[in-house]
User: Fold this.
Amino acid sequence: MTVTNTNLLLIRHGLTDYVTAHRMPGWRPGIHLNDEGRAQAATLARRLADVELAAIYSSPLERALETAEPLAEARGLGIEIRRDLGDLHPGDWTGRLVEELEKEELWAILQSYPSGARLPGGESFQGCQARIVAELEAIRKAHPGQTVAVVSHADPIKMAVAYYVGLALDLFQRLSISPASVTALAFQRRGPRLVCLNYTEPFPSVTRSAGATPTPLTFRDSLRSGLPSVAHSAGATGLPSVAHSAGATGLPSVADRPAPATEGDAGGSGTR
Assistant:
């Protein structure tokens, strides 16, 4: 039986001055891509040129929309805005420098027990994970057998990946998501597969041995076949990313696991 994947390409927005300054942007309006971020967005559109996209979804925040625009223009597609793809709500921490926040008692708790923490005047990590997963589930169910681009933010993408590979929320910050990176999830009959994580380089060809002759596969082909590609991001950590294959790693499939319950906090109401 031929299995047709539904693929979600989770894209972090390009670079902003808040990112380079290590400042918490949250939902503050008026944060735009800087020159490097705009160049990253244009490069991203070219890197994805061989991937057939059915739709493009985006967080409503300017930096995400500006990352999605070159991709949408190149495809002649509109941008579907979804509020629940937005960034973690940092509340009273909005605009503050990370080096200042590291002195707060709550900061240490966030590094070890984020599942039990809420940002002052803002959102809980459980609430953020609940809304991003619920939104991604709605998107993938609306596009069976298709590939869709979803432009969001670092923490929500990391939390979504943690959910789909069965990683505890308390460990989500061990994942790295760089500006303008692509993380690909392929949904098959037997569950989701992490095809690549934090991809910032031109997509490689993967090879699958067919007898004695290797058959080259493009990134697009790897999405269709469900093969995990070898995803390497030199820009982030210099380490190969986690390519999830249930048969190879023994990681659990979470296809039948329900999305986490949505909390009644900011950003977790399901409003689009």
DSSP finds nine helices and eight strands in the chain.
